[in-house]
Amino acid sequence: MTELIDGEEIAADLRSELQAAVDSLADSGHRPTLATVLMSPDPASETYVAMKQNDCEELGIDARDIELDVDEPASELFDVIDELNDDDDVDGILVQSPVPEHVDYREVLERIDPMKDVDGFHPENVGRLVAGYPRYKPCTPHGIQKLLEAEGIETEGKDAVVVGRSRIVGKPMANLFIQKAPGGNATTTICHSRTDDLAEKTRDADILVAATGIPEFIDGSMLSEGVVVIDVGINRVDADTDKGYELVGDVEFDSASEKASAITPVPGGVGPMTRAMLLYNTVKATGLQEG
Ligand code: GUN
């Protein structure tokens, strides 16, 4: 039997644990506060930021919503970041990407106070993760670790194959898998668009994480019996539905389910965990602020 991993349920458990932490921080005089900064007219980015704001409000985390016109100079965004860095009431800062082309995203990431970098994208936080003493783990790979833990899926000694090498998912996921820590100690292979004979590598996986952004890129023929499949993709493809599209993952669900011992659905698998981990990092940030 293939188990469907319910990310919504695991995320809800996590949010109720966080609720207690938020309440106790608020009682002791400092309600956790997250500032989101959006500098994009992209409707998808607007939706993502609105969801993050909603998640915060549901838990009683203060959410500050800062929106900048796309035509503003980069210096305007940097001034906003500087102000948020200096504001003792703000615990976490998240600048939604992508930013406009005239803004260097690398400079943005380096500008955010690493203690408030709840995405975990500042080079100092990336460096700490790679070195094995993470401060903030990036939300998606951290959420995947929590999913596996909640399902009682051991990583130690397993062959983990990560397909995708992005800064947000693939690279940090692989780094977490190789750490000498719970949720780590896996023998880890990173595959990507230039990998020769991908199926040969993916068939070695006990745990497969698909994060390519390519709809249904991995199918059942590329998997071995009993694999645990974690699908990070969320892709809109044209379909004969009311909306004119449907959401599919980076994995072809039906054929992969025939091989997998456990698999995440899309939607309802990794997505809710990513959102919950942002709340987790924001609560953690509150504990890291001075005063
Ligand atoms: N754009 C898409 N995903 C993310 C994310 O996790 N963090 C930020 N800041 N921007 C994003």
UniProtKB/TrEMBL annotation:
Subunit comment for this entry?
Answer: Homodimer.
| Biological processes, Gene Ontology terms | L-histidine biosynthetic process; methionine biosynthetic process; purine nucleotide biosynthetic process; tetrahydrofolate interconversion
Q: Which GO terms describe its cellular component?
A: cytosol
| Identification of the protein by name | Bifunctional protein FolD
Ranges in coiled-coil conformation: none
Q: Give the family from UniProt.
A: Belongs to the tetrahydrofolate dehydrogenase/cyclohydrolase family.
InterPro entries per the UniProt record, alphabetical? Aminoacid_DH-like_N_sf (IPR046346), NAD(P)-bd_dom_sf (IPR036291), THF_DH/CycHdrlase (IPR000672), THF_DH/CycHdrlase_cat_dom (IPR020630), THF_DH/CycHdrlase_NAD-bd_dom (IPR020631)
Q: Which GO terms describe its molecular function?
A: methenyltetrahydrofolate cyclohydrolase activity; methylenetetrahydrofolate dehydrogenase (NADP+) activity
Q: Pathway listed for it? A: One-carbon metabolism; tetrahydrofolate interconversion
Q: Which organism is it from?
A: Halovenus carboxidivorans
